[in-house]
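Two entries, shown back to back:
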Amino acid sequence: MDLSPVSLLRSRIESLLLVSDEPISAADLARVLDSLNDNETVSTEHVRAELQAIADEYGQRGSGFELREQDDAWRLYTRRANSDVVEAKLLDGTQQRLSRAALETLAVIAYRQPCTRAQVASVRGVNCDGVIRTLSLRGLIADTGETGGAHLYSTTDLFLEQLGLDSLEQLPDLAPLLPDVDDIDD
Protein backbone atom coordinates (compact mmCIF):
# COMPACT_ATOMS: atom_id res chain seq x y z
CA MET A 1 0.00 0.00 0.00
CA ASP A 2 1.39 3.38 -1.03
CA LEU A 3 1.23 5.72 1.95
CA SER A 4 3.41 8.46 0.55
CA PRO A 5 2.34 11.96 1.54
CA VAL A 6 0.22 13.98 -0.86
CA SER A 7 1.25 17.38 -2.11
CA LEU A 8 0.23 20.52 -0.25
CA LEU A 9 -1.86 21.52 -3.28
CA ARG A 10 -3.78 18.24 -3.24
CA SER A 11 -4.27 18.41 0.52
CA ARG A 12 -5.69 21.90 0.24
CA ILE A 13 -7.96 20.97 -2.67
CA GLU A 14 -9.35 18.01 -0.70
CA SER A 15 -9.98 20.26 2.32
CA LEU A 16 -11.78 22.84 0.20
CA LEU A 17 -13.92 20.15 -1.43
CA LEU A 18 -14.84 18.77 1.97
CA VAL A 19 -16.12 22.09 3.32
CA SER A 20 -17.85 23.26 0.13
CA ASP A 21 -21.61 22.97 0.49
CA GLU A 22 -22.10 23.12 -3.26
CA PRO A 23 -20.07 22.15 -6.33
CA ILE A 24 -17.02 24.35 -6.87
CA SER A 25 -15.25 25.10 -10.13
CA ALA A 26 -11.58 24.50 -10.81
CA ALA A 27 -11.24 28.23 -11.50
CA ASP A 28 -12.66 29.13 -8.07
CA LEU A 29 -10.37 26.63 -6.38
CA ALA A 30 -7.37 28.02 -8.29
CA ARG A 31 -8.29 31.57 -7.29
CA VAL A 32 -8.46 30.67 -3.58
CA LEU A 33 -5.32 28.54 -3.69
CA ASP A 34 -3.35 31.11 -5.69
CA SER A 35 -4.11 33.76 -3.06
CA LEU A 36 -2.34 31.57 -0.46
CA ASN A 37 0.63 30.53 -2.56
CA ASP A 38 3.51 33.01 -2.44
CA ASN A 39 5.99 30.94 -4.43
CA GLU A 40 4.25 30.10 -7.70
CA THR A 41 0.99 30.68 -9.51
CA VAL A 42 -1.72 28.01 -9.16
CA SER A 43 -3.40 27.75 -12.55
CA THR A 44 -6.90 26.50 -13.28
CA GLU A 45 -5.42 23.84 -15.56
CA HIS A 46 -3.14 22.58 -12.78
CA VAL A 47 -6.07 22.42 -10.34
CA ARG A 48 -8.26 20.68 -12.96
CA ALA A 49 -5.53 18.07 -13.53
CA GLU A 50 -5.20 17.50 -9.78
CA LEU A 51 -8.99 17.17 -9.44
CA GLN A 52 -9.04 14.55 -12.19
CA ALA A 53 -6.15 12.68 -10.53
CA ILE A 54 -8.03 12.69 -7.21
CA ALA A 55 -11.22 11.45 -8.89
CA ASP A 56 -9.31 8.70 -10.68
CA GLU A 57 -7.58 7.58 -7.50
CA TYR A 58 -10.81 7.46 -5.49
CA GLY A 59 -12.36 5.39 -8.28
CA GLN A 60 -9.44 2.97 -8.52
CA ARG A 61 -9.31 2.50 -4.75
CA GLY A 62 -13.04 1.91 -4.49
CA SER A 63 -13.15 4.61 -1.83
CA GLY A 64 -16.38 5.29 0.07
CA PHE A 65 -16.69 8.59 -1.70
CA GLU A 66 -16.14 9.83 -5.21
CA LEU A 67 -15.28 13.13 -6.80
CA ARG A 68 -17.60 14.03 -9.66
CA GLU A 69 -17.57 16.86 -12.17
CA GLN A 70 -20.60 18.44 -13.77
CA ASP A 71 -20.43 21.64 -15.81
CA ASP A 72 -16.84 22.24 -14.65
CA ALA A 73 -17.94 22.16 -11.00
CA TRP A 74 -16.59 19.47 -8.70
CA ARG A 75 -18.12 17.91 -5.60
CA LEU A 76 -17.51 14.99 -3.26
CA TYR A 77 -20.31 12.43 -3.13
CA THR A 78 -20.76 9.13 -1.38
CA ARG A 79 -20.05 6.24 -3.74
CA ARG A 80 -23.19 5.24 -5.62
CA ALA A 81 -22.56 1.58 -4.79
CA ASN A 82 -22.91 2.47 -1.10
CA SER A 83 -26.20 4.33 -1.49
CA ASP A 84 -28.22 1.64 0.31
CA VAL A 85 -26.17 1.82 3.51
CA VAL A 86 -26.00 5.64 3.42
CA GLU A 87 -29.75 5.84 2.89
CA ALA A 88 -30.34 3.42 5.77
CA LYS A 89 -28.25 5.61 8.08
CA LEU A 90 -29.83 8.89 6.97
CA LEU A 91 -33.36 7.54 7.16
CA ASP A 92 -32.88 5.48 10.31
CA GLY A 93 -36.05 6.23 12.26
CA THR A 94 -36.65 9.50 10.45
CA GLN A 95 -37.94 8.38 7.09
CA GLN A 96 -40.41 10.83 5.60
CA ARG A 97 -42.03 9.55 2.46
CA LEU A 98 -43.70 11.79 -0.05
CA SER A 99 -47.43 11.31 -0.48
CA ARG A 100 -48.85 10.20 -3.81
CA ALA A 101 -50.08 13.77 -4.38
CA ALA A 102 -46.59 15.13 -3.69
CA LEU A 103 -44.99 12.60 -6.05
CA GLU A 104 -47.49 13.43 -8.80
CA THR A 105 -46.96 17.16 -8.35
CA LEU A 106 -43.19 16.73 -8.30
CA ALA A 107 -43.34 14.68 -11.51
CA VAL A 108 -45.43 17.32 -13.29
CA ILE A 109 -43.02 20.08 -12.25
CA ALA A 110 -39.97 18.00 -13.18
CA TYR A 111 -41.22 17.31 -16.70
CA ARG A 112 -42.96 20.64 -17.40
CA GLN A 113 -40.69 23.14 -15.64
CA PRO A 114 -40.87 25.95 -15.22
CA CYS A 115 -44.60 25.82 -14.61
CA THR A 116 -47.27 27.56 -12.57
CA ARG A 117 -49.56 26.14 -9.88
CA ALA A 118 -52.44 26.43 -12.34
CA GLN A 119 -50.58 24.35 -14.91
CA VAL A 120 -49.80 21.68 -12.31
CA ALA A 121 -53.43 21.72 -11.13
CA SER A 122 -54.70 21.34 -14.70
CA VAL A 123 -52.53 18.27 -15.23
CA ARG A 124 -53.43 16.71 -11.87
CA GLY A 125 -57.08 17.84 -11.89
CA VAL A 126 -56.97 19.03 -8.26
CA ASN A 127 -55.74 22.00 -6.25
CA CYS A 128 -52.06 21.56 -5.38
CA ASP A 129 -51.28 24.64 -3.25
CA GLY A 130 -50.53 22.68 -0.05
CA VAL A 131 -48.46 20.10 -1.89
CA ILE A 132 -46.39 22.78 -3.63
CA ARG A 133 -45.80 24.45 -0.28
CA THR A 134 -44.59 21.12 1.19
CA LEU A 135 -42.29 20.38 -1.75
CA SER A 136 -40.87 23.88 -1.52
CA LEU A 137 -40.25 23.53 2.24
CA ARG A 138 -38.43 20.24 1.63
CA GLY A 139 -36.22 21.99 -0.92
CA LEU A 140 -37.28 19.82 -3.86
CA ILE A 141 -38.80 22.70 -5.85
CA ALA A 142 -38.23 26.44 -5.88
CA ASP A 143 -39.96 29.56 -7.11
CA THR A 144 -37.90 30.50 -10.18
CA GLY A 145 -39.74 33.55 -11.49
CA GLU A 146 -43.11 34.84 -12.62
CA THR A 147 -45.26 34.89 -15.70
CA GLY A 148 -48.41 36.98 -15.88
CA GLY A 149 -48.35 37.42 -12.10
CA ALA A 150 -48.15 33.66 -11.41
CA HIS A 151 -45.15 32.07 -9.73
CA LEU A 152 -43.09 29.63 -11.80
CA TYR A 153 -41.78 26.48 -10.12
CA SER A 154 -38.83 24.29 -11.06
CA THR A 155 -37.03 21.42 -9.41
CA THR A 156 -33.85 22.07 -7.44
CA ASP A 157 -30.40 20.54 -7.35
CA LEU A 158 -31.52 18.68 -4.21
CA PHE A 159 -34.23 16.99 -6.31
CA LEU A 160 -31.59 15.75 -8.77
CA GLU A 161 -29.30 14.73 -5.93
CA GLN A 162 -32.06 12.77 -4.17
CA LEU A 163 -32.80 10.88 -7.39
CA GLY A 164 -29.10 10.32 -8.14
CA LEU A 165 -29.32 12.24 -11.41
CA ASP A 166 -26.82 14.64 -12.91
CA SER A 167 -29.39 16.49 -15.02
CA LEU A 168 -33.05 16.53 -15.99
CA GLU A 169 -32.14 14.91 -19.31
CA GLN A 170 -31.67 11.67 -17.36
CA LEU A 171 -35.36 11.54 -16.44
CA PRO A 172 -37.12 8.68 -18.24
CA ASP A 173 -39.04 9.55 -21.40
CA LEU A 174 -42.76 9.73 -20.65
CA ALA A 175 -43.99 10.38 -24.19
CA PRO A 176 -44.98 6.77 -24.87
CA LEU A 177 -47.13 6.73 -21.71
CA LEU A 178 -49.00 10.02 -21.99
CA PRO A 179 -51.51 11.67 -24.31
CA ASP A 180 -50.25 14.72 -26.16
CA VAL A 181 -49.03 16.79 -23.19
CA ASP A 182 -49.13 20.09 -25.11
CA ASP A 183 -52.92 19.76 -25.44
CA ILE A 184 -53.29 19.92 -21.63
CA ASP A 185 -52.66 23.70 -21.56
CA ASP A 186 -55.44 24.40 -24.07
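entry 2 starts here
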Amino acid sequence: MVVRLLPVLFACLFSLGCGSVFAQEKEEQDAASDSANVENRVVIDSIIPEKHTIDPLSPSKAAFYSAILPGLGQIYNKRYWKVPLVYGAIGTGLYFYVTNKDQYHRYRNAYKRRLAGFNDDEFYNIDGTPNEDGSPDVSMDALRRAQEYYQRYKDLSLLITIGLYALNIIDANVDAHLKQHNIGEDLTLRPMIIPNDFNAKTTVGLSLSFDF
Protein backbone atom coordinates (compact mmCIF):
# COMPACT_ATOMS: atom_id res chain seq x y z
CA MET A 1 0.00 0.00 0.00
CA VAL A 2 2.83 2.35 0.86
CA VAL A 3 4.63 1.41 -2.34
CA ARG A 4 1.57 2.34 -4.38
CA LEU A 5 1.32 5.76 -2.72
CA LEU A 6 4.94 6.70 -3.41
CA PRO A 7 4.41 7.53 -7.13
CA VAL A 8 1.39 9.61 -6.25
CA LEU A 9 3.38 11.46 -3.59
CA PHE A 10 6.26 12.11 -5.99
CA ALA A 11 3.81 13.42 -8.62
CA CYS A 12 2.26 15.82 -6.13
CA LEU A 13 5.67 17.10 -5.02
CA PHE A 14 6.73 17.56 -8.66
CA SER A 15 3.55 19.48 -9.42
CA LEU A 16 4.06 21.73 -6.43
CA GLY A 17 7.68 22.39 -7.41
CA CYS A 18 6.77 23.24 -10.98
CA GLY A 19 3.94 25.46 -9.82
CA SER A 20 6.30 27.29 -7.47
CA VAL A 21 8.83 27.82 -10.28
CA PHE A 22 6.12 29.06 -12.65
CA ALA A 23 4.76 31.41 -9.98
CA GLN A 24 8.23 32.82 -9.26
CA GLU A 25 8.86 33.39 -12.97
CA LYS A 26 5.48 35.14 -13.32
CA GLU A 27 6.26 37.38 -10.35
CA GLU A 28 9.64 38.30 -11.90
CA GLN A 29 7.95 39.06 -15.23
CA ASP A 30 5.32 41.23 -13.52
CA ALA A 31 8.03 43.08 -11.58
CA ALA A 32 9.99 43.68 -14.77
CA SER A 33 6.84 44.92 -16.49
CA ASP A 34 6.09 47.29 -13.60
CA SER A 35 9.65 48.57 -13.68
CA ALA A 36 9.38 49.23 -17.42
CA ASN A 37 6.11 51.07 -16.89
CA VAL A 38 7.70 53.20 -14.18
CA GLU A 39 10.61 54.04 -16.45
CA ASN A 40 8.21 54.93 -19.25
CA ARG A 41 6.28 57.18 -16.93
CA VAL A 42 9.45 58.92 -15.82
CA VAL A 43 10.45 59.56 -19.43
CA ILE A 44 7.01 60.84 -20.32
CA ASP A 45 6.84 63.10 -17.26
CA SER A 46 10.32 64.52 -17.75
CA ILE A 47 10.51 68.18 -18.81
CA ILE A 48 12.38 68.79 -22.05
CA PRO A 49 13.49 72.43 -22.34
CA GLU A 50 12.29 74.14 -25.49
CA LYS A 51 14.92 75.85 -27.56
CA HIS A 52 14.50 79.55 -28.27
CA THR A 53 13.16 79.99 -31.78
CA ILE A 54 14.45 82.84 -33.94
CA ASP A 55 12.36 84.53 -36.62
CA PRO A 56 14.81 86.06 -39.14
CA LEU A 57 12.03 88.21 -40.61
CA SER A 58 11.04 89.81 -37.30
CA PRO A 59 13.49 92.78 -37.52
CA SER A 60 12.40 93.47 -41.10
CA LYS A 61 8.75 93.37 -40.10
CA ALA A 62 9.31 95.75 -37.19
CA ALA A 63 11.18 98.22 -39.43
CA PHE A 64 8.50 97.98 -42.11
CA TYR A 65 5.70 98.65 -39.63
CA SER A 66 7.52 101.69 -38.21
CA ALA A 67 8.11 102.99 -41.73
CA ILE A 68 4.38 102.78 -42.46
CA LEU A 69 3.29 104.32 -39.16
CA PRO A 70 5.74 105.62 -36.53
CA GLY A 71 5.43 103.62 -33.32
CA LEU A 72 3.82 100.60 -34.97
CA GLY A 73 7.11 98.69 -34.96
CA GLN A 74 7.51 99.39 -31.25
CA ILE A 75 4.03 97.97 -30.69
CA TYR A 76 5.03 94.91 -32.73
CA ASN A 77 8.04 94.47 -30.44
CA LYS A 78 5.76 94.94 -27.39
CA ARG A 79 7.70 98.03 -26.31
CA TYR A 80 4.57 100.05 -25.69
CA TRP A 81 6.32 102.60 -23.46
CA LYS A 82 8.34 103.81 -26.46
CA VAL A 83 5.29 104.87 -28.47
CA PRO A 84 4.74 108.17 -26.58
CA LEU A 85 8.44 108.96 -26.94
CA VAL A 86 8.30 108.37 -30.70
CA TYR A 87 5.28 110.60 -31.20
CA GLY A 88 6.60 113.21 -28.78
CA ALA A 89 9.92 113.48 -30.64
CA ILE A 90 8.43 113.51 -34.14
CA GLY A 91 5.61 115.83 -33.04
CA THR A 92 8.10 118.31 -31.57
CA GLY A 93 10.07 118.35 -34.82
CA LEU A 94 6.91 118.93 -36.83
CA TYR A 95 5.80 121.71 -34.49
CA PHE A 96 9.02 123.68 -35.00
CA TYR A 97 8.93 123.04 -38.73
CA VAL A 98 5.38 124.38 -39.07
CA THR A 99 6.12 127.35 -36.79
CA ASN A 100 9.24 128.39 -38.72
CA LYS A 101 7.46 127.89 -42.03
CA ASP A 102 4.57 130.17 -40.99
CA GLN A 103 6.97 132.87 -39.82
CA TYR A 104 8.94 132.59 -43.04
CA HIS A 105 5.83 133.07 -45.15
CA ARG A 106 4.74 136.08 -43.07
CA TYR A 107 7.96 137.96 -43.74
CA ARG A 108 8.16 136.75 -47.33
CA ASN A 109 4.62 137.98 -48.13
CA ALA A 110 5.38 141.36 -46.57
CA TYR A 111 8.63 141.58 -48.53
CA LYS A 112 6.87 140.75 -51.81
CA ARG A 113 4.19 143.40 -51.20
CA ARG A 114 6.89 145.99 -50.51
CA LEU A 115 8.52 145.08 -53.81
CA ALA A 116 5.13 145.48 -55.51
CA GLY A 117 4.82 149.03 -54.12
CA PHE A 118 2.30 148.42 -51.32
CA ASN A 119 2.67 149.80 -47.82
CA ASP A 120 -0.13 147.89 -46.10
CA ASP A 121 1.70 144.82 -44.79
CA GLU A 122 1.58 143.90 -41.12
CA PHE A 123 5.19 144.99 -40.48
CA TYR A 124 4.93 148.44 -42.03
CA ASN A 125 3.07 150.04 -39.12
CA ILE A 126 3.01 147.54 -36.25
CA ASP A 127 1.80 149.79 -33.41
CA GLY A 128 -0.76 151.63 -35.56
CA THR A 129 1.09 154.96 -35.31
CA PRO A 130 2.99 155.99 -38.45
CA ASN A 131 6.53 157.23 -38.13
CA GLU A 132 7.14 160.95 -38.63
CA ASP A 133 9.39 160.35 -41.61
CA GLY A 134 6.96 157.81 -43.12
CA SER A 135 9.44 154.95 -42.84
CA PRO A 136 8.16 151.44 -42.01
CA ASP A 137 8.68 149.86 -38.60
CA VAL A 138 10.44 146.89 -40.23
CA SER A 139 12.70 147.78 -43.11
CA MET A 140 13.20 145.83 -46.31
CA ASP A 141 16.60 144.67 -45.12
CA ALA A 142 15.09 143.42 -41.85
CA LEU A 143 12.39 141.54 -43.79
CA ARG A 144 15.06 139.86 -45.91
CA ARG A 145 17.12 138.84 -42.87
CA ALA A 146 14.00 137.46 -41.16
CA GLN A 147 13.24 135.36 -44.24
CA GLU A 148 16.75 133.92 -44.22
CA TYR A 149 16.56 133.22 -40.48
CA TYR A 150 13.26 131.35 -40.58
CA GLN A 151 14.18 129.60 -43.84
CA ARG A 152 17.29 128.22 -42.20
CA TYR A 153 15.48 126.97 -39.10
CA LYS A 154 12.60 125.65 -41.19
CA ASP A 155 15.00 123.46 -43.14
CA LEU A 156 16.80 122.41 -39.96
CA SER A 157 13.51 121.44 -38.31
CA LEU A 158 12.58 119.37 -41.35
CA LEU A 159 15.93 117.55 -41.28
CA ILE A 160 15.58 116.84 -37.56
CA THR A 161 12.04 115.51 -38.07
CA ILE A 162 13.21 113.22 -40.89
CA GLY A 163 16.09 112.06 -38.67
CA LEU A 164 13.70 111.26 -35.82
CA TYR A 165 11.46 109.35 -38.24
CA ALA A 166 14.46 107.32 -39.44
CA LEU A 167 15.55 106.77 -35.82
CA ASN A 168 12.10 105.36 -35.07
CA ILE A 169 12.62 102.77 -37.85
CA ILE A 170 16.15 101.92 -36.71
CA ASP A 171 15.04 101.54 -33.10
CA ALA A 172 12.31 99.07 -34.06
CA ASN A 173 14.75 97.04 -36.18
CA VAL A 174 17.49 96.93 -33.54
CA ASP A 175 15.03 96.19 -30.75
CA ALA A 176 13.67 93.21 -32.69
CA HIS A 177 17.24 91.94 -33.14
CA LEU A 178 18.00 92.29 -29.43
CA LYS A 179 14.81 90.46 -28.44
CA GLN A 180 16.11 87.40 -30.32
CA HIS A 181 19.61 87.65 -28.86
CA ASN A 182 20.71 84.37 -27.31
CA ILE A 183 21.05 84.88 -23.56
CA GLY A 184 20.56 81.23 -22.58
CA GLU A 185 22.98 79.07 -20.63
CA ASP A 186 24.17 77.32 -23.81
CA LEU A 187 26.19 80.42 -24.68
CA THR A 188 27.78 82.21 -21.76
CA LEU A 189 30.44 84.87 -21.41
CA ARG A 190 31.64 85.43 -17.87
CA PRO A 191 34.70 86.94 -16.19
CA MET A 192 37.21 84.56 -14.64
CA ILE A 193 40.02 84.97 -12.11
CA ILE A 194 42.66 82.21 -12.38
CA PRO A 195 45.80 81.91 -10.22
CA ASN A 196 49.00 81.77 -12.28
CA ASP A 197 51.20 78.85 -11.21
CA PHE A 198 54.35 80.34 -12.76
CA ASN A 199 54.58 83.71 -11.05
CA ALA A 200 52.05 83.18 -8.22
CA LYS A 201 49.95 86.08 -9.50
CA THR A 202 46.31 86.30 -10.45
CA THR A 203 45.25 86.32 -14.09
CA VAL A 204 42.01 88.06 -15.03
CA GLY A 205 40.17 87.22 -18.25
CA LEU A 206 36.91 86.22 -19.92
CA SER A 207 35.51 82.74 -20.43
CA LEU A 208 33.35 81.96 -23.47
CA SER A 209 31.47 78.68 -23.23
CA PHE A 210 29.49 76.81 -25.86
CA ASP A 211 27.20 73.96 -24.79
CA PHE A 212 25.76 71.65 -27.42
